[in-house]
């Protein structure tokens, strides 16, 4: 009688240990995926912010009207931040990963033009990594 109960207790103990190990592996996997996603989102936010500042302060409204033609699409690469800091947005490689588009024209007069732009960075896995809207106003012109 004692021997049968010891075998059952051993089997149940092994099952509990296996369940605990399995749960710890799943939690570790979820944590790693979460950290990776957070790092990619942070990188996307930094890129969107850099593009925003590039458009705000290094292009005039007239240049934006003629060059962008309401939207511009760029390719996302690992060294995009370095390229943004060294080159103009117009010289970067074209693609469908980063979309810059003009949303609204809130101009009241010819000299007081205000535009709303959106920078959208698409994730390689599908979906939107980050999206940012900003205003380009007449006083930001060079």
Would you write up a description of this structure?
Strands 1-2-3-4 form a 4-stranded antiparallel beta sheet. It is rod-shaped, with a radius of gyration of 26 Å. Helix 1 packs parallel to helix 3 (80-86). It has 142 residues and is of the alpha+beta class. It has 3 helices and 4 strands, in the order ααβαβββ. The longest helix is centred in the N-terminal third of the chain and has 57 residues, at 2-58.
Summarize the structure.
This is Type II secretion system protein. This protein has helices at 2-58, 61-67, 80-86; strands at 71-74, 98-105, 114-122, 128-137. It is 50% helix and 22% strand.
**Global Rg:** 26 Å
What structural class do you assign from the helix and strand content? Answer: alpha+beta
| Count of runs of 4 or more consecutive helical residues | 3
pLDDT averaged residue by residue: 86
Q: Would you report the number of β strands?
A: 4
CA(first)-CA(last) distance = 91 Å
Low-confidence stretches: none
| Sheet with most strands: strand arrangement | 1-2-3-4
Which percent range describes the beta-strand content?
A: 15-25%
Report the sheet with the most strands, covering strand number, pairing sense and barrel closure: 4 strands, antiparallel
Q: Give the SSE order as H and E letters.
A: HHEHEEE
Task: Report the principal-axis shape.
Answer: rod-shaped
Helix content: 40-55%
Protein name: Type II secretion system protein
Keywords: Membrane, Transmembrane, Transmembrane helix
Transmembrane segments: 12-37
């Amino acid at each position: 009688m004692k021997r049968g109960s010891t075998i059952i207790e051993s089997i149940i103990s092994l099952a509990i240990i296996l369940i605990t190990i399995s749960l710890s592996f799943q939690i570790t996997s979820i944590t790693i995926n979460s950290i990776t996603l957070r790092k990619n989102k942070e990188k996307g936010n930094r890129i969107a912010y850099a593009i925003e500042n590039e458009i705000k302060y290094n292009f005039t409204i007239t240049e934006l009207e003629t060059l962008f033609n309401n939207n511009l699409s760029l390719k996302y690469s690992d060294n995009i931040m370095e390229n943004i800091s060294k080159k103009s947005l117009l010289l970067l490689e074209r693609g469908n990963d980063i979309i810059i588009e003009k949303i609204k024209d809130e101009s009241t007069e010819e000299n007081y033009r205000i535009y709303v732009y959106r920078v959208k960075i698409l994730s390689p896995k599908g979906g939107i990594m980050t999206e940012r809207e900003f205003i380009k106003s007449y006083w930001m012109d060079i």
